[in-house]
Amino acid sequence: MIRFLGTRIAYSLLALFGLVLGVFFLAYLGGSPARLYLPENASQELINTYNHQHGFDRPLLEQLGDFLLRVVHLDFGMSLRGTRTATETILHAFPDTLIIAAIAMVVALVLGIGLGALAAYKPFSIADRLISAVGLIGISLPNFWLGLLGVLVLAVNMRWLPTSGQSGFLSWILPVFTLSVGAIGVIAQVARGAVVEALGSGYVQNARARGYSSWRLMVHHALRNAMLPVVSITGDRVAHMFNGTVIICAVFAWPGVGQIMVESVTDRNFPVLQAGVFFIGLAVIAVNLIADLLYAVIDPRIRIS
User: Fold this and answer.
1) Rounded mean pLDDT of 104-122?
2) pLDDT of residue 27
3) What are the beta bridge partners of residue 85?
4) Which CATH number is 243's domain given?
5) Is 184 contained in some domain?
6) Res 302 pLDDT > 60
7) CA 252/CA 250 separation, integer angstroms
8) Confidence of residue 220 (pLDDT cuts 50, 70, 90)
9) Vertex 288, ends 197 and 189: CA angle to 5°?
10) Inter-axis angle of helices 86-121 and 126-140, nearest 10
């Protein structure tokens, strides 16, 4: 287990280093970083002055070394809007992002596993075909289109739910639904396939011959062993959840990292954008590491191999 844990941590650190390099080179996608920070009509003299003041005229390796040192201290500089640092700006909004992503993930797991198990209970039945079709539709629908459609139908036309903001329980329904629909479809498909395979395995057939009820076979045997691929896909879906929060914040004016990152792009507030990309990437890496460890805990064969 220690060796497995060490290997996964090493891979995570390697991914984190790649993330830091990506965040650093974001500033050079448009050529000179000053072109991103300064207005479009800035004079060449102002650009040269800005590059010299912030060290952008130094050799690239020196800039990279200085950036890595600052990242170790979680220092991305001051926000160009307000008096907070970029790190403080992102961390202040991060709890709202984590909460809505966690709630959407829980909803997706409960509904996805439940629907997948229901579809697998009688393969190729009407319920199975209906759940599979709905799941595929949910996977195919873009988040932003689904969110706008929900606002138009449920908020504007029917006036059942708020259009935006975070004003109470009802204001959570549309964002959580929009964020979790795709994950529900994916998890339902994966759970359905895993449960069907588990129900056809030898140990389940043996338990059925010994008189076990269908409910016990499903819950205590098939569904438990079918959790391995579900846990594996969960880490991937969490990454999509964090990406989806940017859309959720834009569509529903939801307070969170996504809204701040959208505003930072508009305002050319690049320190905040760098900090946002770093912390979201760090959260995704941490979730995938936890998923790998859970996978090893559930199936000891993973640790041995």
Assistant:
1) 87
2) 66
3) 78
4) 1.10.3720.10
5) yes
6) no
7) 6
8) low
9) 30
10) 160
